[in-house]
Structures are given as structure tokens and as C-alpha cells.
Amino acid sequence: MRKKIVSVFLAGMMLAAALAGCADTGTRPETSAQAAESQAEESRTEQEVSEESRTSAEGRGGETAGTDVPKYVFLFIGDGMSYPQVQLTNYYLSASQGETAGTVTVDGEEKAVLSSKNNLTMMNFPVAGSAQTYDSTSFAPDSASTATSIATGRKTWSGSINVSEDFTQTYETIAEKLKAQKDMKIGILSTVNLNHATPAAFYAHQASRSSYYDIGLELIDSGFDYFAGGGLLQTTGKEEDKKDLYALAEEAGIKVVKTQAEAQALTAADGRAIVIDEHLADSSAMAYELDRAADEWALADYVEKGIEVLDNEKGFFMMVEGGKIDWACHANDAASTITDTIALDNAVEKAVEFYNEHPEETLIIVTGDHETGGLTIGFAGTDYDTFLKNFENQKISYAKYDSDYVSAYKEKKTDFDTVMEDVTELFGLQAPAGAEREATQQKDSADQHPESDNNGALVMTEYEYSQLKSAYETTMSRTGEEEEFAQDEYIRYGSYEPLTVTITHILNNKSGINFGSYAHTGLPVEVLVQGAGAERFEGYYDNTEIYNRLAALLGVQ
Prior knowledge:
Shape: globular
Radius of gyration: 24 Å
Number of helices: 20
């Protein structure tokens, strides 16, 4: 197995890259920190850390002797998914399904009384914990460092994967330990790239998460059994001068699958496999659930196939990432956030079906690495009201709208009125017109029942309309070569297409939803657990404890 101890020389060369920011989208400049701030914690051996973790675990309430040790472990990570993302999705489902607690009549008017059950499978798990997510750089951390904490129980810099703050040590992951010590089969799945930060945190050791080619080499050398989801990045290196990663994988005896039909035919007898989704979309990732065709595999299908090919007498560990929840939140696209959260929950349901067949031997953990976007349920313009059914009007993700429509607008110099026709068709937003204007301007602040039938809710106010037209003009004037934006422009649009992000902002706000950031935040994340040893994950703790408690439960050193 290739494990690269990064030299001190390399540390000096790569420190800036490691602290360069949130590479999930390239929108987040990270806070710099000095490598000299490394603490004694870093110099402790993994054996010492493991011993301390085990001792700590034994002293925690609920960790009773005789707890069943799971043979099958599912770890689901909703990238960017914290409580707001889970709750918004749940409320949306309640609203769209018309869940009510009955009706009442007030002043001769019949009104529905809101109700919301736990619509998501993950919300029905019997154990719920919470984890804080800070890293060595920031209280608003990145995916590489937070996934490192979950995978190894150690903190590191934003942008680094399984290396110490001084870059002199590498950390062995829970997946590597289970493979080496328990001979368990290992599966790594993601809706984004398989050498992206979160999946990489379970097999790679790099000072910079952007070292995609080297991460790909570690993927091949990991010995892990099943990789599935998005395509590999920089398959021939950053300068496109290296041997193709897929070719190297095949030379290493790994079956590389790139069609859905091949994936369907895959069996355990095929041995190690890398399964790349046939219908890759933006950045060679799987399509957003909102854009996925009915006959295309979802994340749940790859989980189901993973269960089939990984099941064996020694057991398995499967890490499944819903990575595009994060990407949608970076872009402030609430509708895509909702549908990709549902897609992750559908994948969780596959694990629950397996659990129902092996209840004494299966553990399922659902968590997030961090929150993205500063999502809030509530907006100043709608006061105490929400209109979540509005999201049913969005037919396409921000990314697909950019690729399929905005690019064509620029090429053809499409006029604004024609663009508005697409906006209405794809997002439901309507231009103000005639007598509707006054009514529309009143609706946002009117004392209306939440989720009421409001046929005018998506007719824009004059203010919203002017914001959209200004964004259109900015989009049409951009060349695509811009690297920096003025402060006011960044606050409005981030690094996204001004037209697209303004459309989602208006739809979000009319629905009673708001984002406060294009980056990550410091909110704690949920830890929802079912199965053998689930009681160990109760409480409010640091994200490193996910690893510590799992390692203690499974008995790895």
C-alpha cells in the first residue's frame, strides 16, 4: 500500500496550497495559519491515540459490555448537510404531500393546520447525537479536514487529507484499519469525484486535497474493493503528462466499469472494481438528483450494488457520500439541496433494508462533515410564513441551467424577455404585470397561512424583477475569464453566474428560505445512528469522536 510521508521540504512548498481554501467549489478563501502552531497532540503515535480513545470509550455512559460488534458498517456523509438541510427537506416533503393536522374555521374561512412527520428514513433512527466540526484552520472548516477527523479521529488544516499540521505524519484511516486488521471488504461511494476530498479522506494522505492524481494513485494502491460514483479528476495529471489512472487501475487488476449495463452485471466474482456513473454531469460528477433521468442510476442503486458485491463472511465497511448537497448549498440552490438530500436518504433506505435482514450485525451512521451556505428556514421578506411548495416549480439544477441555457444566451446574445420565458418555465418565476403588481407586493408580507395556495406567490415584485434584470446584464457582460470580483458583486453573486444565482435567490426567498454564505459555516452536524452499538453515539461531541467511538466499538488499534 502506498502511503506517502510528506517531507519537511514538501511541507514548505505546499503549505500555501493546503491552506488555499475550500476547493469544493473554489469560492472560499481559507484563513492562513502557521505550521509552527503544531501541538504536542500531533507528535503522539497512533497507538497512543487509539489507546486513549479506547479508554475514553469504555468510560462513557451507554457503552456497556456485551454490546454487539457490527459485522457490516454503513457510514453516510451528507457533505454540507447539517440540521437545516435535513429539516428543510423534511418540511418540504410535508408541504408537498399536503400533510395537515386537520382544518379549522376562522371568521368563516376554512384553514388547514400544519403538520410534519419524520419523512426521511434517517430521522427515524433511534439514536441522535451532534458533532462540532472545527478544524486546525477555522471554525468554518473544509471537507478535507472534517472528513479526516471522521476517518482518523485527528484534526488537520483545511485542505489537507490525513496528515499532521507539520506534514511529517500520516494518519491511518478507519477503513484502512478495518481492511488490514479485520480483513473486511471496503466500499467508497460518492456522487462527486472519487478522488475528491471526502472519499479521499478514507484512503489517501496528502498535504493538499488538490493533488488529485496522487490521490488517484493512492486509490489504486488502497486495496479497497468497490469504488462507485463520479469520475476521477486529472486522470493524466495536472499537466496531462502522466499515465492514465484508469489504465493504471486495470493494470493493477481492478475492473473499471463505465456503463450502467456493466455496473448492473457486476458481481463479487469480478473482484476489485471502480464503477463510474455513465451519465456524468458538471465537473465529471454524478448529475444532480433534480436532473437525473428516471432510467439513470441514483446513489441508492450504487449502494444496492455495493451491498451485493461486498457481502462476505468477514463483513464490510461502506462510506457513502452525498457530495452534491454541498455543491448545491455553495450555489444557494435550495431545490437541488432538497432533492439531493432525498437521494441520500433513499440510499440510507437501502442500508436499512439490509439492516432489517441482519439487525444484530449491522450499524448505520448518517452524519455531515460540515454545514454549507448558512441555510435558514425563514426570510425577512416572508416574515413568519413559508411557501415551500414553490420549490416544485424548479425543474432544473443551477448547474444544468448554466450549461444548457446560460451558455447559449451568451453565445446568441439572447434578449432578456426571451430569457424570462425560460425562467418562468424552469423556475416558475413570473415578471410583474398589470394589476398583479400591487397584489404581489402585498403577498410577501400579508398575514397568510403558511403553505397556502398562493397563485401569485411567484410573480416577482418590481424590486425582484430589477435585481434579476441587473444580474442578466452582468452575466451577459462577463467573459468567463474573471478571477476576482468587487465586494458588492461577490456578496450578490459569489463566483456563480449572476443570472442563475439570482434566480435561485428569488425563488428561495419567496419560499421563505435564505442562505447567508457561499461557503461553509461552523454549525454542528447531526449524527443519526441505528444498529449494533448505536448507543455509543449519543451526546454532543467533537467530530473526531465519530472515529474514536467507531474504532472502540470495532476493536481496531
